[in-house]
Structures are given as C-alpha cells and as structure tokens.
C-alpha cells in the first residue's frame, strides 16, 4: 500500500527520500513522486511505474533541497497517472497522503465554490487545498493543518511541507501508520521503519490523531486538542541489512529458505527447563488464561489461515471453544461474547486496517483481554493489545507471506501450550512430547527444504495451466487454502483450496484432465479418509500431485506424482507441509514471469479498509 518518506536535514535529502521509497517498494504501488524545497521553490517530480523510473528522472533533472517529502502511490481515487501521483501542491503547500478521505467529494464542492481548482482526481489534492483554505482562519500552518483534519472523515498518514517555512516538516496520523525517525541534526518521517534504517534506528510512533512539527533539532507532537504529548523513543532491533536479497533471486525465495533460522528465532528463549516461559507473551502471568472460556481469533489472508490451524490446536490442547473469523467480516458483525473471553489477532504487519478495527471493536465488547500475534514491534496492533506474542520472523519483504506464516503457526502452538498448562488441560506426557517436537522443528524445516529441486522440476508441468485445486483434511485443510492463496497471488493461476471431503458437494464438477489437483497428505489419522477422496478425483481424470510422508505406500503413475517428504511429528505437519507449497507457488510464478515480490494489485501492508 502507499508509502511515505519525509526528511529535514543539513544535507541534500533527495537521496534519503529515494532510498526510503525503494525500501517501501515491497508494500505495492503504481506510481511515485518526490518534492523538495530549494531556493524558495518546489522541485516536484512524479512518474508512473517503478521507483527506478523516478530515480532516473531525478538524476537527470535534479531535485535539490534540505527538506522534502516523497511517496509511492497505490491508486484508490483516480487511475495510476502522473497527475494523480503524490505529492500534491496547493500554492505554497505540498502534501503526501496514505489512506482515504471518505468525504472528499463534499469538501471538493465547497473548495470549488471558494475558487479552488483541481488537476487530479485524488482525495489528497482536496486535502492540501483544504489545509490551504484554513490558513485564512488560523495563525500558523500547524493550526490550519489541525483545523482541516477536524473536517476530514476517513484515514490518513500525512507529510506536509510549506515553501514559506522550509525549516519545518509536518506529519499527522489517523488510521494509517506513521513514524518519526530521529537522527543527529536531522529528522525523518516514514510509513514504515524499514524505509529509514540506513539513517536511523531510533523511532517515535505517532498515535491516532496526533500531529507533529519536526525541525532538524526538535520533534514536537500534539494531540487533537493541541496539547503537547510526551513521546517514547523506541530503538529498532532491525538493521539496514535486514532487507538485502543476499544470494537469492527474489525476497520470497530468500524468505522461504530462511525458515529454519526464523523458526529457531521464534523459539529462542521461549523454552526454559522444558517449559514454555510466560515471557513468551509480553504482559502475562501464571494466571492470565486460567479462566479463559472462549477464544476469538481474527485476522486476514494468510494470517487468517494461521488462525484456522490454531483453532484445531486450541480446542484439542486447551479444551477452550475457539472461533476464527476474517477481520473484514468480524468488524461488522454483532458477535455474542461469552464471559472470560480472549480476543486474539494475528498479523505480520500489525497495521492491517480490518484487523485493527476488529481489535478496537473487541475492546468495546466484553472481551476480558486481547492478545496480538505480530511480527512488528511498535506496530498499532501491538500498541493497542493487552498482550503480545512476537513472531520474530524478521523483516518480511516479499508480498507473499512465507516465513511470517510459519512463525505465526509456531507462535500459536506456543500460545496453545501456555493456555493448556495454565488451565491444566494437558497431560505432562503430551506436553513433553510436543516440547521435544518443537526442539526438532528448525532441523526438520531444513530437511523439508531439500525437496526444492523436485518442486522446481514439477512446477514446469503447471506452465500453461489456468486453474488448480488444493485438497487437505483436518488441520491440513487451512494449509490447502494457504497453498492455493500463495499460488494465485504470485503466479496468477486461479487456485482454490478445499476440505477434501467437501469436493463431491460441488467442486468435483470442475475436475478433468486439464485440472492439476495438489493433495496435502501427511501421515496422520485422516490419511485413509483422504485417500478415498483422492480416488474420487483420480477416477475423473485429474492430474494429481500428492505431498506425502516418504514412508507412504504410493506409486507414481501417469496420473499421479508423489512428492515424498521427511517423516515428522503430527503436531508439526501444518508448519512443515507449508514449505513445499510455498516452493511450488514460487517456481510457478518464476515460470510465468510474474513480479514475484510485488505481484500486481497487491500490497504488503493493507492499511485501508
Ligand atoms: C499473504 O501472502 C498476503 N499477502 C496477505 O493475505 C496477508 O497475509 C494479509 O493481507 C494480512 O496481512 P497481515 O498479516 O500483515 O495482517
């Protein structure tokens, strides 16, 4: 989704801004722009397409200045074009914006009546004109900014510069994340810490409805009433290298192969004396979940699939009734909340608009407490939840979530064990058995990655295919859904996941010899049932790709290809069987020649509804 970078320094800022934009590319965008101030005038350059095009243009014509703002735009109002790209300028003000101004049409009519005219179709241009119009009623740009925001309905992360005061950078946030980076004699703004890692690791997180005035020497943050707010400085544990591709061709590939390490990182310090330490979840004590009677999990996309797996684990290991729901649905439903209910959100970014809105709703409902499973320290979800379990997957750049998903699964399993222990719902034997399995996970993950070459070869057979089905049963059903989501989002092959037992209730009509069917079939209690479902598909001519345990008695034939995977404990199967599906999606995307790390129309962090 859109990215913002802003800088004020005693050196030329255009390089900092462009490097920041490059580091935000992973979020997804369709055009980019930059605006600096030098010699009492704006240098404003906008381009469609990649940041590289903008960089080339800046190198050609120059964009000097000690203050500036820049933006990558993911079109909402108006097509991707130069005119609609940010920054938008009104007289001596220039603005970049993430989010959506819902009442922009009404405001636009008022401004047209007051004599303003517009070059773009965007809500952002309306907002910069609105701020400008408020200057008549106020004594400063900061006041005009506040007055304008009071008229706005919707969500925003904003960075504003004023030609008449090139010593101040302004920022505001409501619903769209924005951080301030602190340098020495220079300060920055961005929508994501990753953008600023080459220049600082010290950050201030703007909260909802806060507005900031930033100079080279000072950062002042105000609330809606104009009262100055004391802000905490948070040091990031990421470094600039966290977003290098290393020897890999794509970030996604690197992130898939990083999983033995990322899973190890999720575990580090969490198992102490054969017990999952309470410190695994920030803020809890021995009794936090003792009375928990109901768990509601809410998330989107891949994180939702992690929640679906967790439901099996929570109910089996803790005995607590668990519901899992897509955030965009939950937030508009009148859910019945029993006593002693725990609200769990899952999110890689911690900024997903629907998940955040669901958490805010849960706080109004009668949930006893809220817990986020999140990969980003300092994110909105983390700041607004009672407790947090950090997934510790490290920065994930590829739009398709891979290592964050397996880290979410592992984190949810740790949480299930903590709750089970507090509720005394699990036998000592079972608990120990799972702890032993967890210790083996990183090495097993490495073993699973050795199917890489076989999957690369097998992917060739998907070339030219337009549809694909993924089947799984029980806890592997959400993994089939995740396999299908991965394939469709990056290879653009239409793929659907089904619970294998559901196939004969409709989707089996789609099966013919042009339809590849991927079956996730580890050795578990539902294996025999799954085999019967597979026979129904085989009888209708489907091409079968079956991911099984290497001990399984299954022969390759004209219709069936087996991918034999290492034996592993049943509890770890959802985590480990995800890996070959990620590889399949990756290689199909490479063969189809898509933009693997930034697939079309997608954004890494979905900060609008
Ligand atoms: C995953 O591959 C997707 N790109 C997407 O479904 C993602 O999981 C979803 O948007 C939720 O994001 P979050 O985990 O940051 O909340």
Structure class: alpha/beta
Structure annotation, total helices: 18
What fold name stands as the CATH topology of the largest domain? Answer: Glutamine Phosphoribosylpyrophosphate, subunit 1, domain 1
Q: What's the gyration radius in Å?
A: 25 Å
Read across the widest sheet, the strand sequence of neighbours is 3-2-4-1-10-9-11-15
Kindly provide the name of the CATH class of the largest domain.
Alpha Beta
- Distance from first to last alpha carbon: 11 Å
The largest pleated sheet is described as: 8 strands, antiparallel
CATH architecture group name of the largest domain:
4-Layer Sandwich
Number of E-type strands: 27
Mean pLDDT: 94
Strand content: 15-25%
Poorly predicted residue ranges: none
Task: Please state the overall shape, judged from the principal axes of the Cα atoms.
Answer: globular
Helix content: 25-40%
Total domains = 3
CATH homolog superfamily of the largest domain: Aminohydrolase, N-terminal nucleophile (Ntn) domain
Bound molecules: 2-deoxy-2-amino glucitol-6-phosphate
Task: Write structural notes for this entry.
- By secondary structure, this protein is α/β, with parallel strands linked by helices.
- The chain folds into three domains: 3-242, Glutamine Phosphoribosylpyrophosphate, subunit 1, domain 1; 245-426, Rossmann fold (3-Layer(aba) Sandwich), CATH 3.40.50.10490; 451-592, Glucose-6-phosphate isomerase like protein, domain 1 (Rossmann fold, 3-Layer(aba) Sandwich).
- Helices cover 34% and strands 24% of the residues.
- The strands form five sheets. An eight-stranded antiparallel sheet has the order 3-2-4-1-10-9-11-15, covered by helices on one side.
- Strand 18 (294-299), helix 8 (301-318) and strand 19 (321-326) form a beta-alpha-beta unit.
- Helix 7 (259-267) runs antiparallel to helix 13 (428-448) and helix 15 runs parallel beside helix 18.
- The radius of gyration is 25 Å and the shape is globular.
- 2-deoxy-2-amino glucitol-6-phosphate (AGP) binds next to helix 8.
- Pfam families: GATase_6, SIS.
- Keywords: Aminotransferase, Cytoplasm, Glutamine amidotransferase, Repeat, Transferase.
- Its EC number is 2.6.1.16.
């Amino acid at each position: 989704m859109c990215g913002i970078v802003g800088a004020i320094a005693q050196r030329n800022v255009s390089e900092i801004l462009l490097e920041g934009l490059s580091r935000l590319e992973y979020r997804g965008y369709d055009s980019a722009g930059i605006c600096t101030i030098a010699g009492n005038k704006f240098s404003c350059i906008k381009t469609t397409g990649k940041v590289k095009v903008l960089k080339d243009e800046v190198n050609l014509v120059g964009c000097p200045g000690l203050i500036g703002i820049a933006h990558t735009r993911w079109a909402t109002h108006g097509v991707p074009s130069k005119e609609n790209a940010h920054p938008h300028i009104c007289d001596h003000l220039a603005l970049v914006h993430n989010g959506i101004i819902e009442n922009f049409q009404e405001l636009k009519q008022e401004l047209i009546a007051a004599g303003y005219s517009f070059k773009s179709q965007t809500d952002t241009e309306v907002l910069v004109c609105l701020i400008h119009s408020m200057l008549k009623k106020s004594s400063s740009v900061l006041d005009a900014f506040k007055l304008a925001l009071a008229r706005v309905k919707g969500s925003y992360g904003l960075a504003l510069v004023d030609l008449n005061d090139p010593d101040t950078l302004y920022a505001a946030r409501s619903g769209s994340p924005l951080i301030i980076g602190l340098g020495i004699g220079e300060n920055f703004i961005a929508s994501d810490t990753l953008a600023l890692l080459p220049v600082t690791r010290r950050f201030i997180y703007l909260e909802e409805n806060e507005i900031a005035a930033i100079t080279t020497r000072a950062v002042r943050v105000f609330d809606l009433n104009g009262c100055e707010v004391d802000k905490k400085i948070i040091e990031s544990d990421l470094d600039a290298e966290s977003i290098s591709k290393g020897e890999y061709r794509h970030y996604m590939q690197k992130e898939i192969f990083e999983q033995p390490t990322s899973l190890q990182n999720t575990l580090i310090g969490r198992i102490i004396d054969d017990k999952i330490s309470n410190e695994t979840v920030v803020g809890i004590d021995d009794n936090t979940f003792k009375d928990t009677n109901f768990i509601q999990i809410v998330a989107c996309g891949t994180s939702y699939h992690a929640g679906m797996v967790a439901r099996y684990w929570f109910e089996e290991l803790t005995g607590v009734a668990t519901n899992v729901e897509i955030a965009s649905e939950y937030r508009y439903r009148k859910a019945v909340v029993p006593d002693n209910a725990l609200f769990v959100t899952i999110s890689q970014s911690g900024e997903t608009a629907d998940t955040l809105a669901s958490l805010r709703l849960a706080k109004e409902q009668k949930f006893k407490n809220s817990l986020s499973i999140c990969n980003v320290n300092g994110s909105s979800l983390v700041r607004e939840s009672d407790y947090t379990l950090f997934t510790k997957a490290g920065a994930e750049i590829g739009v398709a979530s891979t290592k964050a998903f397996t880290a979410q699964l592992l984190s949810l399993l740790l949480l299930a064990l903590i709750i089970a222990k507090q509720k005394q719902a699990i036998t000592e034997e079972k608990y120990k058995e799972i702890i032993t399995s967890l210790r083996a996970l990183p090495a097993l993950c490495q073993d699973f990655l050795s199917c890489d070459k076989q999957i690369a070869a097998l992917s060739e057979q998907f070339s030219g295919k337009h549809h694909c089905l993924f089947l799984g049963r029980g806890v592997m059903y959400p993994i089939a859904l995740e396999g299908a989501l991965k394939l469709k989002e990056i290879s653009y092959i239409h793929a659907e996941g089904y619970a294998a037992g559901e196939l004969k209730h409709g989707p089996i009509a789609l099966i013919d010899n042009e339809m590849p069917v991927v079956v996730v079939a580890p050795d578990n209690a539902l294996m025999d049932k799954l085999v019967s479902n597979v026979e129904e598909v085989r009888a209708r001519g489907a091409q079968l790709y079956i991911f099984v345990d290497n001990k399984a008695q299954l022969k390759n034939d004209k219709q069936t290809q087996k991918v034999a995977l290492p034996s592993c404990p049943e509890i770890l199967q959802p985590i480990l069987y995800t890996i070959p599906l990620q590889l399949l999606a990756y290689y199909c995307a490479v063969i189809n020649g898509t933009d693997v790390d930034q697939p079309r129309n997608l954004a890494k962090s979905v900060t609008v509804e």
